[in-house]
Design a protein that fits this description.
78% of the residues lie in helices and 0% in strands. It is an all-alpha fold. The chain folds into two domains: 108 residues, Helix Hairpins (Orthogonal Bundle), CATH 1.10.287.70; 51 residues, no CATH class. Helix 2 packs across helix 3 and helix 2 runs antiparallel to helix 4. The longest helix has 35 residues.
């Protein structure tokens, strides 16, 4: 059997991230928060004398610069805008870094949460490597598969008994 291409592995990785981690939801929440807090900051700063944030576009830029800890964000002038900006800096940072940490943690903890998937991947890998296995390794694989078949048959009988009992 052929080994999956790099493109196929990358696609599977992307699907795993999308399906099994909170990444998409957290990024969506981050973007919505950024848009809302930038709007709030702009509205609070609008009409303030000497404010460097005089458009929604500059407020959007400020929203990225402020929570990314780059230190290049202009300081809002009004007290309300500073309050809104302070909340955004904390929430934006938590969401941004939280999305990264949660995604990495979820992705790498997934095999431990789903050991049956690891078993299937091991069997699939061994099937792909059949030509490279020795006779002893093939015998061991056959014994393992025979044991698996016996186990599946026991599970089916147990399921059938439970169905009849109900």
């Amino acid at each position: 059997m052929k080994r999956p291409s790099r493109h196929a592995r990358l696609k599977r990785f992307a699907v795993d991230i999308y399906t099994h981690t909170p990444f998409i939801g957290m990024v969506l929440l981050l973007v919505v928060g950024w848009l809302v807090f930038s709007g709030g900051l702009y509205l609070a700063e609008r009409g303030s004398a000497g404010t460097p944030i005089d458009s929604y576009g500059k407020a959007l830029y400020w929203g990225i610069a402020a929570f990314s800890t780059a230190g290049i964000a202009d300081t809002p002038v009004s007290g309300g805008a500073r309050f809104i900006g302070g909340i955004w800096i904390v929430l934006g940072s938590v969401l941004f870094f939280g999305a990264i940490v949660a995604t990495v943690t979820s992705y790498f903890m997934r095999p431990m949460q789903r050991p049956h998937r690891k078993i299937i991947e091991t069997v699939e890998y061994n099937l792909e490597q059949l030509d490279d296995l020795t006779i002893e390794e093939l015998d061991l694989l056959r014994e393992t598969i025979d044991t698996l078949i016996v186990h599946v048959e026991k599970l089916k009988k147990k399921r059938d008994r439970n169905k009849r009992a109900t």
